Amino acid sequence: MTRMATLTEAQKRGALAHPDVDLHDEVNRDILKMLSAPGKGWWFLFALAALGVGVMFGSWGWQIYRGIGVTGLSSPVGWGAYITTFVFWVGIAHSGTLISAILFLFRAPWRQSIYRMAEAMTVFGVMTAGLFPLIHVGRVWHAYWLIPYPNARYLWPNFRSPLVWDVFAVTTYFTVSSVFFYLGMVPDMAAARDKTKGIRQKLYSLISLGWRGTDRQWHHFGKAYLFLAALATPLVLSVHSVVSWDFAMSIVPGWHATIFAPYFVAGAIFSGVAMVITLAVPIRKAFGLEAYLTTKHFDAMAKLIMLTSLIVFYAYLTEFFMAWYSGEPPEKQMFWNRLFGHYWWATWIMLTCNGLVPMMLWFKRVRHSIPALFAITIFINIGMWFERFVIIVTSLSHEYAPFAWGVYRPSLTEMGIVLGSFAWFSFWFLLFIRLLPPVAIAELKEVIPARMRRGSGGQDRHDAVPATAPAGD
Amino acid sequence: MSETNGILAAFDYLDSTIDAVKELRGAGFDDVTVYSAYPEHHLEEALGYDQSPVRVWTLVGALTGTATGFAFTAWTSMDWPLITGGKPVLSMPAYVVIAFELTILFGALSTVLGMFINSRLPSVASGVVYDPEFSSGRFGIFVPASGTDLDRAREILRKHEPAETREGAHA
Question: What is the pLDDT of residues B27-52, one digit of tens each?
C-alpha cells in the first residue's frame, strides 16, 4: 500500500490501536462532544462530590476551631491518617507523569488516548495531597513558614531535613506537571475554540493563547514537549523517593531502609495506573469512547500493574527478610508485630490487595475483561492506602522502648477529611471532563493516518469519504 | 501585524500538501506558513527545519536552577551558622536534593518560556490568516506574495488541487 509507505512506525502501530477511528475530523467530533452540556448523571455525581468537599472543609474547620486534639494523633503515633493520605495521593499522582512523559520518551503506542486523563489525575492528585501537610500541621495559618523567605528573624529552613526536601519536591512536581498538562492542552483548546460559539469560544480563545497550528508553532512546541518530558521523567522518580526519605532518613524500625526509594516509586506507579483504570472505565462507558480506549490500552495498563505489583510484593518480602536477617531485636519484633500485632488486619489487607489480587492479571481473559479490571483496581486503591497506613502507623506505634508503645485510632474528624479528599479530587476531575478536552486530540491524530490522495484504490477506506467540494476564491 | 498580501490554500490530503510545499520552496518561496492539526514530521522535513533554539533555553534554565539550588542552601546555612546533629554547617550532600529539584523547576519553566517566545505565543491578534478547519482535518498553506509572484504561487498551489483557496490582503 502506497499510503502505508509514507507512514511512520508510530502511525502504523497507532492505526492498529485505533482500528475504528478513520478520520481526523472524526476525532474532533467524538472528543469535543464530551464538552457539551452535562446530563443528569453528571450533575448527580457533581452534587455528591460537592457535598463531600463540604464535609471535608467542615471537618477541617472544626479541627482548626478546636485544635489538633480532635484527631487521634498523640504520642507515640504523631503521623496518622493525614500523612497516610498525603502519601497515597502523591502516589496516585505519579502514573500521570509516567504515562505522559516516560511512555512518551519510550514511544509507547498506547499512551495517546489515555494520557490526558492521567495527567489531569496527576495535577488533581497533587492538589489533594498538598492539602494534607497543611491540615496536618494544625496551625495552618503558619504554613508559609515552610517556604524560605527573608525575614526579620534571620531564620531559614533546615535544608538538611527531608521534610524541607519534600516541600521542594512536591511544589516542583505540582508546578511542572501543571505546566506540562496545560502546554499539551493548548492545541486541543484551539480545536475546541474552532468548534464552539459564543462565550465558550471566547473562553477557549483566551486559554489557547492564539494557537493556530502553524509549522513554526508545532516545531517549537514539539521540542519543548520533548524537553519537558525529559525533565519530568527524573522528576517523577525523585518526588516519591524524596517522600520515602521522609521516613527512611529517620531511625524508626520499619522506616530506616535503603530499599525505600525504589519501593515507594514502584508503589506509586502501581497505585497510579490502577487509579487511571478506575477512572477510565466509567468515562469510556459514559461517553462511548470504545473506539479510543480499546482492550489493547487496558491490556497494556494491566501489564504495567502486574509488573509493579511484583516489585512491590518483592519489596514487602525483602523488608520481612531483612528484619529477620539483621538480627536487630527492635526491627524483628516490629515486623512480627506488623503481621500479628494490633494492626494485623491492615497488613493482611495490604498483602492481599497488592500482592495476591493483581496476580489474576496473569490471565489474558482477566486483562481483557473491563469489569474484572475495574474490580481489581478498586482492590488496589484500597490496598495501597492501607500500605501507607501500615508503614506509618505500625512503625510509630511500636518503636524501641516497650513503655512507649501505643495505639492510634483515627477520629471521626480525620475520617471526614480523608473521605472528603476523594470528593475533592472527584470534584476537580468532574469539572475537567466537561470543560477541557479529556482526550488528546492532536496527539491521537499523530497515530491515525492522515488522508492521502494517492491511496491504494478502492481498498483505501478513506476513499469512501466524499472530499469537500472545491470552492472558488 | 502589518497587512500581508498573499494566498491561502486549504488541502484535504497530506501528500498533496507536502508536494505543494516542496514545489513552492523549490520555486523560491521560502516564507510559506503551513497549518496542520497535529505535528506532522513529513511537513517539517519538507520545510527543512533544523534544531529549535528551545533546547538552549532548557539547558540554561536547568543550569541556573542547579547553581541557584546550591548557592541558596549554602548561603542560608552560612548566614546563621548553626551546628545541628554534629554535622558540618555546609552539608553539601543534603543540598543535592534541593539543587536537583530546582534544576528541574527552572529548566521546565525556562523551556516553556523559550517555546512561547520562539513560537510567538500568546498571540491574541484577531483576523490573522487562518481557517477553523485547520484544527480538525485540513492542512493549510499560506504564501505571502503579490504581483507576478502571486500568480506563480497560485499556479503551483492549483496544480495540487486544493479544496479551497483565498486571496487578498490578510491583516
Answer: 888 888 888 888 888 788 888 787 88
Q: Does B9 touch chain A (CB under 8 A)?
A: no
Predicted TM-score (pTM) of this structure: 0.89
Chain A: closest CA distance from residue B66 (Å):
13
Higher-confidence residue: A450 or A473? A450
Residue A223 has its nearest CB partner, among B55, B84, B167, at: B55
Q: Which one is predicted more confidently, A77 or A447? A: A77
Interchain pair A470, B164: CB under 8 A: yes
Pairing, β B139-144 against β B164-170: unpaired
Contact call for B39 and A454, based on CB within 8 A: no
Q: Count of A–B CB contacts within 8 Å?
A: 227
CB of B101 within 8 A of CB of A172? yes
Chain A residues within 8 A of B62 when measuring between CB atoms: 231
Q: Can you spell out the DSSP letters for A343-387?
A: THHHHHHHHIIIIIGGGGGGSHHHHT-HHHHHHHHHHHHHHHHHH
pLDDT digits (tens, 9 = 90+) for A125-179: 999 999 999 999 989 998 888 888 888 877 888 888 899 999 999 999 999 999 9
Pick from A223, A446, A31: nearest CA to B38? A446
Kindly give, in sequence order, each residue whose CB lies less than 8 Å from that of residue A305, ignoring residues fewer than 6 positions away: A270, A273, A274, A277, A358, A361, A376, A377, A380
pLDDT at residue number A1: 35
Instruction: Please state, in angstroms and rounded to a whole number, the distance separating the CA atoms of residues A280 and A222.
Output: 27
Of the pLDDT bands very low, low, confident and very high (cuts 50, 70, 90), residue A468 is very low
Specify whether the CB–CB gap between A234 and A94 falls below 8 A.
no
CA distances A39 to A36, A430, B146, Å, are 9, 12, 52
Residue A89's alpha-carbon distances to A124, A146, A164, A170, A423, in angstroms, are 9, 20, 19, 11, 13
Query: Is residue A461 scored above 70 in pLDDT?
Result: no
More confidently predicted of A373 and A95: A373
CA–CA gap between residue B111 and residue B106 (Å, rounded)? 8
